Amino acid sequence: MSAADPQELREARALWLQDRCDEALEKFDAVLAAHPDHPLALIDAARAFGGCYRIAKAEALVDRFLATAGRSAATLAMAGQTCRMIHRGRKALDCLKESAALAAPDPATGLELAMLLDRGGEMAAADAVLGGLLARHPSFAEGKFFQAHVALRRGAPGGAVPGLEAIAGDPRQHSYLRTRACYALAEAADRAGDPAEAVRQALRAKASGEVEAEPLRRVAALIRKQGDQLARAFTRARLAGWQREVPRHAPVVLLTGNPRSGTTLLEKVLDAHPGLRSSDEHGLFARFIAPPLLQPPGKAGSGDAGQRLLAADARRVATMRDRYLGGMAELLGEPLGGRVLLDKNPSLTELIPAWLRMMPHSKILVMLRDPRDVVLSCFLNYFPLNAYSVSFLSLQATARRYAREMESWLRLREQLPPGQWREVRYEDCVQDLRATAAGALEWMGLDWSDEVMDYRDTLVRRLTQSPTYADVQAPVHRRAVGKWRRYSEWLAPVQPILAPFVRNFGYEP
Fold first, then answer.
1. What's 49's domain CATH number?
2. Do the beta carbons of residue 492 and residue 394 sit within 8 Å?
3. How many domains does the chain have?
4. Which of 39, 292, 350, 456 is the most buried (most CB within 10 A)?
5. What are the residues facing 365 on neighbouring strands?
6. What is the pLDDT of residues 28-38, one digit of tens each?
7. What are phi and psi of 361, to 5 degrees?
């Protein structure tokens, strides 16, 4: 941004920052009509349209930006960063590679290139970019953190731990980076079989989160209230009425469950089937569909979400459904063409009533994992701090969050027709992946395809957005099954909270 930017462009940015998305897009269109070749107007508009899942237009604006500004190292870097933001990871990687070929990248661009290469399975290339970057900028802390984190993930903690400790203990570093380093140290301790040190490092990481926690807890309380209202409004009879109102819609499956329950693994396996396309942790439904359906305009958290859901008429719901399906087609970059759409979004359980108002014939696939392993994994691993993950700042709050989500699911499944929902256990996936995947596919109405077992080849073509991308790149293993036993001392206070779910889901007491 500069003083030379047109006033309309500054106004469009301000509207976007206020989350007034529709007004911002109108203003960006007006800016582009008046200044069709303004480079920053093209880039900012691309990011805004892409953020609203109008991705084809966003991509065209990026192409126009490069045609107007030229393909220099700087413009290609900016285009690459924008493509990543608009869900075009492969195009982002191509732009950043071309940029690096023209000139040695600056620290931020080089790190982004290395991270995308790593995410795309080009590990040797990622190492080369990162090594060159740190040779030129030896004090670049973010690069040193990523290098240590990658080494740890690849089973080489020797040189990683001292570097991580140096970052975690350096008050000059940003609190975000120190927090990430502490979580990485917790992971290193866990891999080394030292649960006490893993818990100590996790608690050290969470100390900084407490500074920002209270406003997020208030938002979380509003979300819980909304979930209760939706649960009261949802019944099997109402679902049947919604289904009569919409005789048929595209074949859609919602894959949800707690974070760290194995949703990414199952999604990537199923996505290799030629009759299915999946999406990976996006905000289309939670940000652009559910809020207008459940909240008065500009009054988030007010009113009764359940009553608003019941009051939504068929025309309004059809508009939401069309917006969702259109956004998903843009996100995937291709029409569904009759294939099953698998929308993988952990933690949408309490929004399932709103989801079924939009897609009443869709199926609900819920990933289960031993509750003690889920809670432990959520506690030990890094999550960006938000109204959901604020619950992971203590083991007690993590267990209560798990209990709430699973109580919600158990109530909901009582109201769903038996064939409309299915549970898959993570432990079954790692025990017999083929049989577990085949059962889920049959339930979706799809025949078996041998391509499913080659799912790791698919990962190379489609960059995984989930933070657990590295886990699904590795062969399936059983190391994480029953990990909670090593932490039974720390989990003891929350065992009474989790015991009903251990029993209900059939895990060993």
1. 1.25.40.10
2. no
3. 2
4. 350
5. 255, 422
6. 999 999 999 99
7. -95, 0
